[in-house]
Amino acid sequence: MIKFNLDKEVGLTFYDQIKGQLLSAIYCGKIKEGDRLPSIRELAEALNINYKTARKVYLRLADENYIEIIKGSGAFLQKGSGENSYEQMRRRAIFRLMGEVAQKAQKLGVPPRKFLELLESYFSGTHLNKLNLAVVDHEEEAFIFSRELKMRLGADVASVSLNQIQTNGANELFQKSDYFLTTSWHMKEVRQLAEEYGKQVVEIKPSHEIYTEILEAARDRKVAIVIQDEQTMHASWEIFMNIYHPSTEKQFWIAPINREELIEKIIEEAELIFVSPMCWDEMRKRAPAEKELKTYENFISQETIDYLKELQLLGATP
Asked: Is residue 93 in some structural domain?
């Protein structure tokens, strides 16, 4: 069954939002003629709106022949016919989409055959440019980001700690890398390094979803973050305590795993512990089975991943 959502901050009426979501679900094939929709009462409860408001929205949709309200049974997607059938509406929407995309590709100077090849590569992940990336950061961050880039992009990624950049091994990695990657905290020094090798730098932007979830938890629970390298604490502390400081009186810790006494205190008192992937095995061994631990696979923002996918697909100068 379709679930509707409302954003009370946007300048659209509840009716416009629900109608738009209903039509999108039809066009995407998520619901079909005759499928059951939430009842008026279910809609009001799910969206936290007045019953009369929900009823008014549904009655208007029924008047416009989008839905059918059957007393005692609920609400259903109206069965269309002829030119008004939802199958034809969906077919027309797909046809319009194809025409719009083809027009945009033509305006960008992309021949039809080339566009089809790019589209195939985009969906299949084949025939992409091979990227050689060098992630330069503190050891823990470089390791985590490199692992994630390998998993999400299938790229060749080298992890280089900031204290290793002058070694012979790092020199070889830098020479064969196409791009240097780092976070905003080290952008200045890594950009200077990249210029020495004639390379470009891509900023790794963090995923805000992780920070949001941690801070949401920290409002009601005692939360800790356990990391491997004390050198990475400056970034975590700046993000959580200076930029996203939670409005809470609950205890909140950020600690490296080698701080034995502090880690024991965290294991004893924290209600939820977020753990760096580098520390997961050790923390899982040390913490009792009932202690709630959580880690992440994706630390990099979708924006950064999409930019690198763009380079894989089109290169730096498409």
From this structure: no
